[in-house]
Amino acid sequence: MGWHFLWFLSFGQTKERNSAVGPRPDFKTIRRDSDTKPKTKQQNKMLKLTETTNTEDQPDDTLTLPYDARQKSRQPATTQGGIQVGVFLPRGQTLRHGAVLTNNQGFKVKIEAAPEALSVVRCTDPLLFARACYHLGNRHIALQILPDELRFLTDHVLDQMLIGLGLSVEHQTLPFEPEAGAYHSHGH
After folding, report:
1. Of the residues 62, 82, 113, which one is the last residue of a structural domain?
2. Burial level of 176, CB count in 10 A (0-12/13-18/19+)?
3. What is the DSSP string of the chain?
4. 118-169 confidence digits (pLDDT tens)
5. For the purposes of burial, counting CB atoms within 10 Å of the CB of 95, is it exposed (0-12), middle (13-18) or buried (19 or more)?
């Protein structure tokens, strides 16, 4: 093997790829189909929702989202009326059930919590209820606390832990609205 062979291995195929110093001027850029396809009207007409509002006015549409999606500040979605929307909110903001999103055109979309697979624990013993809250909170899970009832996204390991504490666990499909947390809206 001479130096000619090594030169061919390292530089002989450069017309099919970029060279070590950048793209070759005699090499045409390969375009992907997605770069050249014209956008459809539906892609161009995505409605941007950029802020929450405290209006009592009737919303123009409804957007039903599970808890995981309500934590995302930027996402595409489709309303119940079939409108393609893009949610563009400040980072760290969680959408609560009943919140209303709007934009500079005044279009209003009400947020609804989607039914999700939940573990539900009911307990009338205050000490046992507090112990369950302590152990679940110690695992940093999203937890909905109601009078004599706890709800969390179904997790068989957590279910077994609560059964070990002497509680019974049921599985239901319900809207999930967990606690926001002690530091949720404070600027510390």
Report:
1. 113
2. buried
3. --HHHHHHHHHTTGGGS-BTTB--TTSPPPPPHHHHSPPPHHHHTPEEE-EEE---SPPSEEEEE-HHHHT-SEEEEE-TT--EEEEE--TTPPPPTT-EEE-TT---EEEEEPEEEEEEEE---HHHHHHHHHHHHTTT---EEETTEEEEE--HHHHHHHHHTT--EEEEEEE------TTTT---
4. 999 999 999 999 999 999 999 999 999 999 999 999 999 999 999 999 999 9
5. buried
Pairing of strands 61-65, 109-113: parallel
In this structure, the chain runs to a length of 188
Q: What is the CATH number of the domain that holds 84?
A: 2.60.260.20
The percent of residues above 90 in pLDDT, for the chain, comes to 65
* Whether residue 82 is found in the same domain as residue 144: no
pLDDT of residue 55: 85
pTM: 0.69
The residue with greater pLDDT, 28 or 56, is: 56
Domain of 139, in residue numbers: 115-175
